[in-house]
Amino acid sequence: MTGPRIQLIHAVTAAQAPIHDAFRRLWPEARIADVADYALAPDLAAAGRLTDDFTGRMATLIAYGVACGADAVLFTCSAFGAAIERARRDARIPVLKPDEAMIEKALALGCRIGGLATFQPTIASLEAELTAAAGKRGVAATLDIRYVPGALDALNAGDGAGHDALLADAAAGMTGGDVILLAQFSMVGARDAVAAKAGGRHVLTAPDEAVGKLRSLLD
């Protein structure tokens, strides 16, 4: 049986394989389609913050998915959460931010939340989303979200093992907490390496949680 059509919107190439893999494993019936704007990440790095221009660009990408017949839209770059939140307000289909399903799962596991990111602008977006989600639950989350320099460069250079080792070492340096979030879709390959040094804490990845949430909404 053919499943619903999910429009995936990417800002970096490294996010595509992890989310495709998650759909293959968890919801193979879904029909996924890709669209990418690879200028988004460098433009955000240059701007230093999310401006109204990014909200407009998110709205245009959502409208494209709707026009193509999507039953839902999933963004895969975690640095644009606030812009996606504003842009999706009038959408008539579900539009999922990259990390929101993972954040829901994390807060269900505990309020002491650690995280690792390899693209620095992701941190402000993730912290804001975690704080807002915790507030809606009436709890105060304790956050420790850390940037891991050099990891994304290693991944982009084809050194997946080096990328994973840097993340695992960063996880080993974190103490306490209930859960560790891998803040970007591109980081999913490091899950086992991070879990090995996470001291028994839960390690969550955004692609698996996003697919699970979409399936619960649509299937």
Structure, explained:
With 219 residues, the protein is of the alpha/beta class. It has ten helices and eight strands. 48% of the residues lie in helices and 17% in strands. The mean pLDDT is 94. It starts with a strand and ends with a helix.
| Domains, number | 2
The top level CATH class name of the largest domain: Alpha Beta
Termini separation comes to 11 Å
Strand content: 15-25%
**Low-confidence region ranges:** none
SSE series: EHEHHEHEHEHEHHEHEH
Number of strands: 8
Structural class computed from helices and strand pairing = alpha/beta
Radius of gyration: 16 Å
Q: From the 3D coordinates, which CATH architecture of the largest domain would you assign? A: 3-Layer(aba) Sandwich
Q: Outline the biggest β-sheet.
A: 4 strands, parallel
Rounded average pLDDT: 94
CATH topology of the largest domain: Rossmann fold
The gross shape turns out to be globular
If helices are DSSP runs of H or I spanning 4 or more residues, what is the number of helices?
A: 10
What is the helix content? 40-55%
Please state how the strands of the largest beta sheet are arranged side by side: 2-1-3-4
Sum this structure up briefly.
The protein has 219 residues and is an alpha/beta fold.
Keywords:
219 residues, 10 helices, 4-stranded parallel sheet, 17% strand, alpha/beta, Rossmann fold
